[in-house]
Specification:
By secondary structure, this protein is mostly helical. 68% of the residues lie in helices and 7% in strands.
Length: 233
Amino acid sequence: MVVASANKVDFMIKGVTKFYAFGQELWVTTTVIGLSIVTVVILLLAFITSRKMKAAREVPGTFQNIMEFTVESLDNMVRGTMSHNAAKFVNYIGTIFIFILFCNIGGLFGLKTPTADFGVTFMLGVFTFFIVQYQGIKNHGIGHLTAMFKPFPVLFPINLIGEITNPLSQALRLFGNIMSGGVILGLWYGMMPIFVKIGIPSFLHVYCDVFSGAIQTYVFCMLTMVYVNDKLD
């Protein structure tokens, strides 16, 4: 969500309240609040799903059907990309898929979209980077490091930059697409006449929050699987 008024559009992350810890001034920002709400919603959904599955019926209800379809779809997505390696990573990929998707569509419910903050997407990219490097060393040992000197040692700087920029490009791609959607919506609400602010923005929300949000979630998870899978064989 972007805060906007008649002639003013605000895309900034706002500090809501501050506190002090270890002699440092720290702020609770709109991003922190958005992340907290998304986390609580996901945890509640997981708790309810666990309770429902323990009492699952032979003829499933609507909620059970939705949850089973979601789990099956995520499982198929991971297996389609990672094949025999899917079992090791389906839980992680499924978790970040749900987390990113809920963050991306947060604007529909009045939240400052957490993934419109580069700090959030950067940390997601960092997680991917460390998982990729860990799997590379685990499966190839020292060969994972010496591979950056191939086919010629002079190419080491380029190969090193390639390893580092992979997660950075993931983070920037997710951040840029989500932030641009917020900018478009903010400009519409902040600059258009009142008669075009009713009804029409719903189509923009469907595209920017739902469609684009789902696509960028899929792209981020797909790139993560490709990068990790490349280090497993």
